[in-house]
Amino acid sequence: MARSDRRARLDRVHAESLPGRRAGGLRGSLAAPGRGRGTAGALAGRRLHGAGARLAPVCAHPGCSRRRERSVSGLTVVTGATGFIGGHLVRQLVADGVHTRVLVRRPESLSAALRARVEVVRGDVRDAGTLVAAVRGAETVLHLAACARAWARDPAEFTAVNVHTVERLLESAHAAGVSRLVHVSTMLTLPPGRPAPLDGLAARPTPYEESKRAGERLVESYAAAGRHAVIVHPTRVYGSGPCNDANAVTRVIALYLRGRFRVRLDDGDVLASYVHAADVADGIRRAARAGRSGAHYVLGGENLSFRAFLDLVGEVSGVRRKVVALPRAAALAAGYAALLWGRLGGDVAITPGWVRVFLEHRPADVEPARSDLGYAPRSARAGVAETVAWLRGGGGTWPWQLAA
């Protein structure tokens, strides 16, 4: 399909769809004689790959080093389809005519136009029977569902979704004979470019980080046992989508435009990779087509300091806001106070662990995935301009409107 035709179809779908357990059990189920290579060698060192452009032609000659692209023509199952990245992913699949099935708790969260174009399995990803039904007959599984909140009163909520659900999904995919699986993890499971100089509670991994690492290890074991699985790591994602913890960067953009984002952490020099959600969705599809089994791919965008990112938002939007530096000591104090407030029954927006996360340098090298996957994220300027226009146009389900 020509790129312009595909873009037109995607724009049409997008317009129609946007609304005003135990590790031992898994290892045992996958250790069938003759199926795998064993886990020791595969897990001794991770294969880390970056992110990157349009699918390049691949050579079919057996001796050629250019990666062979696999066809994704059969049934594709998506978990987390109503989430931030998942919404973009499903719209792209539908626009390309891919036979798509989504597992959702509330089908009404999908637009009527989108529901008419996909198979819908209603249920909770934590339910084993629901997972079995969802992957039955599937060729490809794209697993995005996760507990991605900043905090939970009971940390077991993270484990239930980010670990136990992954285990059950892998067992179901193995039993169903799924050919390819892509597991969407997070950049936070990889070492930072420069750790934050903090100790105590702030230095400990957040429950989100710990649970995502544990889920990742299960997928690595699955791949090492001979099944095809790829792990991708989105970085700091922004773009159109629901107003939730997973879309925190877009929330920052919206608050900045309204003059309600007043402070940045320290001097704002921390580097991170900012990527549009549509590019992450595209990278997930490319990982299913061309990713190496057992490989890790970073799906990033443009590396910018937080200060430079806010400056870009101001430049693109024509709105300039004064943002002052918040010392890390004050941010940590706010994090500890928020934890106390949470124990008293309140909502928690920041914790000491998340202060550490925001102080860690996490630039991304996307060049390896450009080579392997042909992934090409848009520039930060283009992505921010699209996001600002979307917010000013109503912002979908966001609880505020922005005047042009």
Structural class, please?
alpha/beta
Question: What percent of residues adopt helix (DSSP H or I)?
Answer: 40-55%
CATH topology group: Rossmann fold
How would you write the strand order of the largest sheet? 1-11-7-6-5-2-3-4
Largest sheet, in brief, is:
8 strands, parallel
Can you identify the CATH class?
Answer: Alpha Beta
Q: Order of helices and strands, N to C? A: HHHEEHEHEHEHEHEEHEEHEEHEHHHH
By DSSP (H or I, 4+ residues per run), the number of helices equals 15
Task: Summarize the structure in words.
The protein has 404 residues and is of the alpha/beta class. It has one domain (3-20, 39-392): Rossmann fold (3-Layer(aba) Sandwich). The chain is 42% helix and 13% strand. It has 15 helices and 13 strands. It has helices at residues 3-17, 23-30, 40-44, 84-95, 112-115, 128-135, 156-176, 207-224, 248-257, 277-290, 306-317, 328-343, 352-359, 367-373, 380-392; strands spanning 48-49, 76-79, 100-104, 119-122, 140-143, 180-184, 229-234, 236-238, 263-265, 271-276, 296-299, 302-305, 324-326. The strands form 3 sheets. The chain has an 8-stranded parallel beta sheet with strand order 1-11-7-6-5-2-3-4, with helices on both faces. A 3-stranded mixed beta sheet has the order 8-10-12. α8 (207-224) links the parallel β6 and β7.
